[in-house]
Amino acid sequence: MQFGVFTVGDVTPDPTTGRTPTEAERIKAMVAIALKAEEVGLDVFATGEHHNPPFVPSSPTTMLGYIAARTERLILSTATTLITTNDPVKIAEDFAMLQHLADGRVDLIMGRGNTGPVYPWFGKDIRDGIDLAIENYHLLHRLWREDVVDWEGKHRTPLQSFTSTPRPLDDVPPFVWHGSIRSPEIAEQAAYYGDGFFANNIFWPKEHFIRLINLYRERFEHYGHGKANQAIVGLGGQVFMRRNSQDAVREFRPYFDNAPVYGHGPSLEEFTSQTPLTVGSPQEVIDRTLTFREHFGDYQRQLFLMDHAGLPLKTVLEQLDLLGEIVPVLRREFATGRPAEVPDAPTHQSLLATRAGVR
Amino acid sequence: MTSLAVVSAGLGEPSSSHLLADRLAAGVGALLPVDVRTAHLRDVARDIADNLVTGFPSARLKAVVDDVVGADGLIVVTPTFNASYSGLFKSFFDVLEPESLVGKPVLIGATGGTERHSLVLDYALRPLFAYMKAAVVPTGVYAASVDWGSPQGLADRVDRAAAELAAAMEGKPATKPVERFVPFEQLLKGRS
Fold it and tell me: CATH number of the domain at B2-188, out of 1.10.1060.10, 3.40.50.10700, 2.130.10.10, 3.40.50.360?
């Protein structure tokens, strides 16, 4: 099973000091978090993509390319890549380039983006969101698998005799996950292609995501990619830890109360009972995270959101040290009782080996 | 049994909105055996505000929403604030999923200090539920303070409105929202 961190890349004032980091500080902090993730033994770093303040990561492959050069093992991913407003041709090119530079340590989570104005800024319409995700990904899928593509769709200029370069490393396209908070169409899309499905699982109650994941698993089997329990599921999660549970709650509360997404609403206690957010001791985080398997079935990837709401870099790096301590326990516990037929998340090496086996 | 959900946004205790809602529900109950579920929005006021912020309902609010969405008929009553429904009343309907009330028989009611606000029914409530594609019965009931001490009038309007809602509930099976699901071949159609 893979463990990692995902970051939104928000520039948020620290509510305890009132200080807002500069864009430069935030960008460098995201890099420091990625390097730390590798140092403490995590498997994955995923960056968000945004095209509006207060977010900085508008150019994910630039950041991931830089991180690739400074890491050895870490899988570089996105959370999420905007399949709606980006040109699928540019996604194909950018991520194939990154794949070569990173020796295959690359995958992507596709998402639609829910910020209305971003669509018109890129010449699109949010009401076409699902249709853009379907059409654009279908083209991207072909561009990585067919050397020469003729294409005509509703949302971009037709292509005649187009070759996306560079070709994917070893002719193995990056593995793709599809993320969605509420659309069954996206679970169906992931199932159709035999791709992964990622449930962000941080802001909403689990019942909501159980429905989507069960649909994805069922349809994955329907389309003949394997049994339902062999579908590739990723989950988000959000934690804040201190050795002592009360210290964690005391320190995190002002960040929670003022958080951009859910702040000024429910109390920390209500929100932790309603959603997967866990604030407490490392053992409490272990216990809560292990319940995810009971709700969603054996899964392949667990990403944690560690750095939002204005938490200072120093604190985030301390959190990653603690995460590094609990991940070996999580690995051991998640492996216990896991059926042998449940696969790991595909990597470049495993996809290469699968292809060699098929030939 | 046929189910009737009653939503009142009254804030006082006692509340004339609750009183009107109860009268309307009793009027329907006299014509039709109904299982009545009453929600006072004041009891879930913070849950509604939290839902606006977080995007999902608490367990307590979800129980109310499920009663309303699942009911065969709905009675809604709001006090009149600044020439319209109250903010709490509107916020409750704002957190419902789109299409939650499509085709649902709804009786609208409002209360206020004077009868000069009675058009709040037709200028504020009726367009809201028309937008939500609910089937609003023709008679809405507005109760001003003076109505509670008048010999007739209010009782007649309550009876007429209740009869219309009862008829609408008998006349059509409840429309429950269905999970939308489109197979991928259909999503992909027209693209090579």
Answer: 3.40.50.360
Residue B162 has a CB neighbour count (10 Å cut-off) of 25
Domain that holds residue A215: 2-358
Q: Quote the number of domains for chain A.
A: 1
B71 close to B4: Cβ distance less than 8 angstroms: yes
pLDDT (tens digit, 9 = 90+) per residue, A125-180? 999 999 999 999 999 999 999 999 999 999 999 999 999 999 999 999 999 999 99
pLDDT at A189 over 70: yes
Is A203's CB within 8 Å of B181's CB? no
Contact B53 A264 (CB under 8 A): yes
Res A71 pLDDT > 90: yes
Contact (CB<8Å) B53/A135: no
In 3D space, the residue among A282, A283, A279 whose CA is nearest the CA of residue A255 turns out to be: A279
pLDDT at B177: 53
Q: Which residues of A touch B189 (CB under 8 A)?
A: none
Q: Please judge whether A188 and B188 are an interchain contact, meaning their C-beta atoms are less than 8 angstroms apart.
A: no
- Closest partner residue to B54 (CB to CB) among A154, A203, A223 is A203
- A274 in contact with B, Cβ within 8 Å: yes
Domain boundaries, chain B: 2-188
Burial of residue A262 (CB within 10 Å: 0-12, 13-18, 19+) is buried
Q: What is the pLDDT of residues A293-313, one digit of tens each?
A: 999 999 999 999 999 999 999
The DSSP letter of residue A10 is B
For residues A281 and A303, what is the distance between their CA atoms, to the nearest angstrom?
18
To which residue do tokens 């609408």 refer?
A: B168
Instruction: For B51-91, write each residue's pLDDT tens digit.
Output: 999 999 999 999 999 999 999 999 999 999 999 999 999 99
